[in-house]
Amino acid sequence: MKFVLTSLVLRFHSGEEVIPLHRLNYIYGKMGAGKSSIARLIDYCLGADILLTPALQEEFINAKLSVILANAALTIERARQSDNVRVEWWTAEDAHFSGVIPSREPRGEFIKGTGVETLSDLVFYLSGVPITKVQVGKTTGNTDTGRISLRDLWWYCYVEQDTIDSSFFNLDNPAFWKKNKSIDVLKLILGFHQAEVAALEEELRKTHSSRLENEALHKGLTEALSETGVGSSIEIHNTINQLQASLKKAEESIQQEQAKLKEKTVSNAVEQIREQCRKLTRDLFIIDDNIQALKLSSDNDTRHLNEISGLSMKFERATSAKAILNGVNFEACPRCTQALPEREAACCAVCGQVELENEAGTQLATIKVDVETRIKELSGLISIQETSLANLEKARQQTILSKREAEDALNKALAAYDSAYLSSIILKQKEVGAINQQLADFQKLLSIAQKADSYKVFAGVLKIKEGTIKENLSAARSKAESDDSHRIQLQRYFLDCLQRSGFPGITPQTIVYISPKTFIPVVTNGVYLDGKRPTETTFNNVGSGGKKPIFKCCFAIAVHRLALELGASLPDLLVIDSPMKSISERENRDVFEGFYRMIYTLAATKMKSTQFIIIDKELFPPQSNADLNITIRHMTPDEEQNPPLIKGYRGL
């Protein structure tokens, strides 16, 4: 997988450090110069945690890594103590994109419809590489799947100084998930994870998850039903049938009691009281109607009386005013004050109309007599109406009281007459209501029980399907792993790297065996001495602390050689930090030179597309005739011509 680092830009409080990265990079020098920090900060940009050195604690702000992938040029910027990274990329069509994405823990889709959630997913997406999923628990029966992320592949791309002589790519890790994930990475490189295997693993995971869900639902509903004491769906059916039979019997009993009640005739006393109640009700309606009509008539007469009184007063005022004005001799108009024209003697001096004879006194007396007579009549009528209304109210109250007494008497008579029959019917009706309620409750419980049964049946179907998928998966895995040529080739490459590097004890008879289950390489001398098994050398028992780094680096190089040959989804980058960590370049000169000659030879031939970043304490440059474009950086903590990573820093 194309993965070329072009630069690492580090921002410190004291300034900015730009580190250009080429295909073959060799960084060497004294302790405390910050050599390993370069590799750690590359790892940090790609999502790793980082333990900051005292220098980085004091100076580090952020880091920006530039990477060329198959389909884009990507920059990754990560600030100190941040869980997110800022990414920016340009495609071949000069399209530009940017954003902030989690470095490791997903928090939702970053690019809609792509499944990209983390930085690892984005790298695969921009490289045109599908995200690989593998089964988490292959021996425990756990069918959940997990992703093989860039961080998992990175175990075989970054041989870090801290674990170069203590851990063999997590294949020996006591944490099973890390060990299994490391095995999955090697299987991916060897081609053991075919599309069919991945599809079956995903189908198995979904089927298993669905089965467990249905079993849990069945168990939960069954336990809930058990707590109610109703039992299974069959038992609930039987209970419902019994309740329906009891309901039918109770309803028939009610019908019989009602038929008996209809056959009985009501006594004369009860009928007389009932008729009396009806009569009193009718009387009450009549009284209410009369009261309403009387109130309406009284209101009309009162209004008429008030109107007559008002008109009489107005007439008296007009007559008085005329009498007063008759004695006034108008010379000017009382409205506009202009002089009045001459009028005939029989005409009004103001309006000019012929004056009527003075009959005001006679008219006023006559009208006054008529008004007083009418007022007396209306007042008398209103008084009579008020008296009648009071009498009707008394009659109404008496009628209401009589009606209540009659109704009480009727209720007592009916209670005495019907109690024997009605009490029986009421009890039966209560029994019917209780049975109906029980039926409704059991119908609900039956629905729940049937649902629980359906979950159980579906879980059984899924269990059968799960078994079939497991058989198919086992066959698919066997088929994928049947071609052992890739594992054998890895054995050859590893042995070749050990031989090229001058690893002690390697002879023409040496054999390397890599278990297809553990993928831990075992090196033997290949011969039996005195009937004894040949000695077996592994990473854990190789002995010398200096041998372990070479052993581990040779395996990493062998894995990359095979990945290049197979076109596997492994980044074409190998960072090796301090392979000569515990080896003296003077006492073990042959191993020192042999290891680097191997790297230079492979970098110039079989691994031309692989980018190397090598960090060590001493320099072993390639031969002058080697066709290699190598960038060498010498770092010391106190030499200006060979400055440290953080210029001017002189701490620990």
TrEMBL record:
SUPFAM superfamilies, sorted: P-loop containing nucleoside triphosphate hydrolases
Keywords: Coiled coil
Family annotation (InterPro entries): P-loop_NTPase (IPR027417), Rad50/SbcC_AAA (IPR038729)
Coiled coil region boundaries: 240-267
Keyword Coiled coil: yes
Coiled coil listed as a keyword: yes
Ranges of residues in domain Rad50/SbcC-type AAA: 22-284
Protein name: AAA family ATPase
Species this chain originates from: Hymenobacter lucidus
Lineage: Bacteria, Pseudomonadati, Bacteroidota, Cytophagia, Cytophagales
